[in-house]
Please model this.
Amino acid sequence: MSENKSRMTLREAFAATRRGYSILWKAMPKIFPVSLAKNALTALSPYVPLYFTARLVNTVAGGGGGGEAWPLLAALLLSTALAGAAQAAASCRAQVIDNAYAFPARYRLHVDKMLRMDFQDADDPKTLALLNQIMEDENWASWGLWKLKDAFSRLVEAALRILGALALSVSLFTLPVPQGSPLAALNSPWCLPAMLALMAGAVGLSALCYSWAQTFWSAIDGSFFNRAFNALCAHAQFNRSASADIRVYAQDKFLFQKAADPALDGFGPNSAIGRASRGPRGLLTAASEGVVRAYSGAVYLFVGLKALGGAFGVGAIAQYVGALAGLSKGAADLLSVLSDLRENAQFLLPVFQLLDMPNRMYQGSLTTEKRADRNYEIEFRDVSFRYPNTDAWALRHVSMKFKVGGRLAVVGENGSGKTTFIKLLCRLYDPTEGVILLNGIDIRKYRYGDYLALFSVVFQDFKLLSQPLGKNVAASEDYDRARAEQCLVKAGFGARLEQLPEGLDTFLYRDFDENGVEISGGEAQKIALARVLYQDAPFIVLDEPTAALDPEAEAEVYTKFNDIVEDKTAVYISHRLSSCRFCDEIAVFDGGRVVQQGVHDELVEAQGKYRALWEAQAQYYQKRRQAREADME
Ligand code: ADP
Model:
């Protein structure tokens, strides 16, 4: 978090804060009026009983009978009750808005950006480090955009507290002690500036001591602990496979011990912050509070003396003391929120940096016309690609045309460039050299979203959500149930679907529903396949579509593959060469180049990479079979 801790000028801090508020205003406008109402009531409601109590005490002390006192008492009770009720209702409303609206909006801001930015940027470790930094700053002390939300509430409250206090304390200075009293000196016009100066001095000194004490906090970097504990707690609680590891190896001990290690500057009594709290930090915090109390004493003295001199009734003492205490609290809060905003400005910079990342891939404007005949032809023309910040070519001089409605298998050893080829095809990255054409036009000229919509993909590390099965298949809340069922049956999930207690409405996994079902890797893959079919895009791309299937299920998928894919163009990466037999074309990758292209029988005959892979695999399977047979004997 310290990288951006460069000194910002006041002007820069102001500009950053203003921009931060404008982002917040667009992201969650509703919080502002709600917070305004809640904090206005919080600031002003304590003054209501203060005002009426003063009148009532004055009346009673002045010998006013029930005739005058009763209406005042009624007004006191009623207004106090009403102000309290309104404040509680506004707090309740603000809480609801926070939970149901502001929190989701806060996460949405990052999630939206991460999902909409160029994939290349989202995939870049630097972007992830930036996002991490933003999250850590937020977790650490709500630094960043979230601090602005909190600061707005505090600003409103402090400002209204000050205004209310001023309104109630004006007469303290205007009502004179009768002439002739030895206390008439308190009528001096210097009293007001003197009291204000005293207040400013006390508030200023208190704020200074407080912020000095705070520097002991900000000097320690708590991000390690936040990150480590968040990771550990999240894993221990939510990630079932990791929690098994944590249990077996008792890894929690390691972290909790580390937390107590003073050398790591944690939060324990012997850590830097622990020692400072017993020393200078503790003293400064005490001084900060002590100065304010001393000021309150001076206020009591001034008000008491004026009352003694006969400037006003005894009842007004409570009003003035309360108002001046409110004034100093308001001023202190105002100072503290302004200094927080100043401090916070530097934490907004990483947020802006993330939100300002440009989308280079979104420049195209052509629309991919929806063709009923699915006659989309894609061509790679001498495409080479290097991942950002690397020197090695992941793909080199790849030229290839896709046959419409054909089935293309992409094979090759690990690291040969297969996944990179798919990433370029789906335009997650753009080629470093060469072009990819859709119906003869460079794909960069098409609207990004339109182009992406041509593809349905099952990535190797696809994710299903802990949501009902049907919604997973349709990737949508509202969907066509008959079609979802059809797709599941086609993908080989039909028999299992019949067993599911609530059919399409059965939750996958148990995170959100105790009747949810746990599914195997193979079943998950079938559901992912059904999701691809439901999308009905002209291209389907499968990365190792059957890796998690048992041999029987794999055979089932392959025999039905043509039915499954229908007239779509299918591209799939496979490690098992036996499964490529049914493909119209096989592209063999080696070291980022396409070294062979053809159908299975041809390629097995030819001397080349495919044959070498085929023989290596045949040997591997033969050895496995022999080992199994030996085991069984
Ligand atoms: P395959 O899918 O055939 O296993 P890949 O396409 O994943 O191969 O990788 C091709 C080459 O690109 C490899 O040398 C790999 O290390 C490199 N590579 C893959 N992904 C990245 C990345 N995000 N950043 C840098 N290099 C990468």
User: Anything to note?
Assistant: Strands lie at 378-385, 395-401, 407-412, 433-438, 441-442, 455-458, 539-543, 569-573, 585-590, 593-598. The longest strand covers residues 378-385.
